[in-house]
Task: inverse folding
């Protein structure tokens, strides 16, 4: 997920994807599962917004 958010940021320049990448780095692989799931939901919303633009 972290790598995907970075790749999305580098391709689109989307600031929200960069913020997600930073958040994923902050929590790390051992971070709370709820926080990671919430970040995944947020990223899915960003993908849908990017597709609609």
Result:
């Amino acid at each position: 997920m972290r790598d995907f958010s970075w790749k999305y940021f580098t391709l689109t320049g989307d600031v929200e994807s960069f913020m997600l990448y930073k958040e994923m780095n902050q929590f790390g692989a051992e971070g709370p599962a709820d926080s990671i799931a919430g970040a995944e939901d947020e990223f899915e919303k960003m993908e849908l917004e990017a597709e609609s633009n």
Notes: The mean pLDDT is 77. The chain has one domain: 2-52.
